[in-house]
Amino acid sequence: MNNSGNWISTRLIVLIMLLLSGCSSGYNTRVADAEKSFYGGDYTGGAKLMVPLVNSESNEKLLYMMEAGIMLHTAGEYQKSNEFLLEAARFAEDQKISVRKQAASVLLNEEKTRYHGEEFERVLIHMYAGINFLMQQNYQSARVEFNRVSRRLDELRRNNEEVYQQNIMARYLTALCYEIIAEIDNDEGALEFAYIEYKRILEMRPDYTQVQKDLLRLAHMMRDKEDQRKWGSRFKNVKMPEYKNKGELVVIHQSGRGAFKKSRGTLLADATMKGAIIISINNMSLKQGVTIGAVMVALNSIEHPIPDYMSAPNKTDHIAIVSADGSKLGRTYVLEDIEKTARLSAEKRYEDTREKVAAGVAVKAVATIASSIAAEKIAEQTPLKDASKLIGFLAGAGIGTALASQIKPDLRCWRSLPSNLQVSRIFLDPGKYTFYLQQVDNNGKNFAAEKVQVEIKENEKTIINRRTLQ
Q1: CB–CB of 63/444 below 8 Å?
Q2: Domains in the chain, number
Q3: How far apart are CA 97 and CA 103, in angstroms?
């Protein structure tokens, strides 16, 4: 066979490979069994299915570690969970790239590249590591992890990454750790640090009644008369909880399924993106036969490369803490809306990268069409010239497939995250209690309940950590 024949054969093989590449399984398929076990209530079973994936060399190693970590956390295996999460934190730091740099590379079909994690996901690794330490009563290590979250969020805000400003959970749990350390060591300095954190939270969320109660209580505990008067005047409708000779029940609630990445649909259905692509093509020197019309036809079925987030159909709004006699003692309130952060992050990525993405799409589409035209012209100059139309057809048919292999959304994400994180705090007399943790929907109807028995000890905090899946 002559060189021209070899070239044509190679071209056909490449086209076949491109067609077959669309059948390869993605990340979501690989974790489907583990995810099914986890959301079916078999948390440990889900984690076990993740372990072989963690131990494999793949572009999703970070994701596998995060998924295994949160599944074990939900199972209450906090030490094992941190074996994965702390390694994930180190791995993420080694692979760290900026949000904008990561977003700008969206056209490279990131599913073929190493997953670095969304910024909010990398932050949540430390959040969960901190909760693991908290549940193991390792309060110093918990405080360190929560402080890492706060420092990173402060850094992002200084860099005008406003979408990350609403995370209060880390600061609140930091203050809680300081309070516990103060109780254990009789350390007034630790109590002052907790007080400082509560004041920072008030600046971020001045309407949060719980932190108003915390400020009133700590000002009283520290015998700060001036602040007692200040907070008393400012929070006139808030009653300071009775805390002397009492213990405290703290409920951490991880609610529902988090948002997951989805395609925005076909690229050209986005009128703004379509217009930006046309502008980019108009600014290019096009080879003979390459037209805007041809490009639009080639891009007609291509997916939008910038992913969005889809909300899961969650039912639970909050948890109500109810005593055995039916008295409502309190409820949880959202301190970190993970779903909202994910959606805002996706919109920011869209705004930051739209023009670059449009330009990249235009370059790839024009180059691919030009190659198709060249294939037909070369075929016309060979002994196989009678097959030139077939070659042209095959090359043309391959244009969409070739572009689809280069331009697609990266739908990988941390799929076992909850929708949000909530907290409740209740002071009680020391003793043994039976409570019901009732799941309450948006209409105020409780549709499920868990019976728990706890012992409340004087001047100590009893922490319950729960995940709801619907």
Answers
A1: no
A2: 1
A3: 10
pLDDT for 115 equals 87
Q: Which residue has the higher pLDDT, 305 or 371?
A: 305
- Is 232 a domain residue? no
Q: What is the residue-averaged pLDDT of the chain?
A: 85
Q: Quote the CA–CA distance of 50 and 84 in Å, as a whole number.
A: 11
d(CA 106, CA 111): 10
Query: What residues contact 56, with CB distance under 8 A and at least 6 apart?
Result: 64
> Residue 63 and residue 417: Cα distance in Å, rounded?
11
Tokens 């109810």 — which residue?
Answer: 322
Give the model confidence (pLDDT) of 349-363 as tens digits. 899 888 999 998 888
Q: In whole angstroms, what is the distance from residue 358 CA to residue 8 CA?
A: 32
258 and 418 in contact (C-beta within 8 Å)? yes
Residues across the chain? 470
Sequence-distant (≥ 6) Cβ neighbours of residue 338 within 8 angstroms? 120, 124, 258, 259, 417, 418, 419, 420, 421
Q: Of the given ranges (124-133, 271-280, 405-414), which has the lowest mean pLDDT?
A: 405-414
Beta 260-262 vs 333-337: how paired, if at all?
Answer: unpaired
Q: Mind listing the pLDDT tens digit for each residue in 25-64?
A: 488 888 999 999 999 999 999 999 999 999 988 889 999 9
- Per the structure, the complete domain to which residue 80 belongs is given by 3-12+27-205+242-468
Distance CA 155, CA 165 (A): 10
C-alpha angle 216/219/222, rounded to 5°? 150
DSSP structure string for 313-362: -----EEEEEETTS-EEEE-EEEEEHHHHHHHHHHHHHHHHHHHHHHHHH
Is the Cβ–Cβ distance between 378 and 4 less than 8 Å?
yes
Q: Reading across the β-sheet that carries 446-456, which strands appear in turn?
A: 328-331, 318-323, 431-440, 446-456
Q: Answer yes or no: is 21 within a domain.
A: no
User: What is the amino acid identity at position 165?
Assistant: Q
- For the stretch 137-140, contacts whose Cβ atoms lie closer than 8 Å and that sit 24 or more positions apart, written own/partner, are 139/177, 139/180, 139/181, 139/184, 140/177, 140/181
442: phi then psi, degrees, rounded to nearest 5: -65, -20
Tens-digit pLDDT profile for residues 112-127: 688 888 888 999 999 9
Which amino acid makes up residue 272? Answer: T
pLDDT of 333 over the 90 cut = yes
Tell whether 212 is covered by a domain. no
d(CA 285, CA 294): 15
Computed on alpha carbons and rounded to an integer, the radius of gyration of the chain in Å comes to 28
The Cα 261–Cα 346 span in angstroms is 9
Q: What mean pLDDT do residues 280-298 have? A: 83
Looking at the domain assignment, is residue 264 inside a domain? Answer: yes
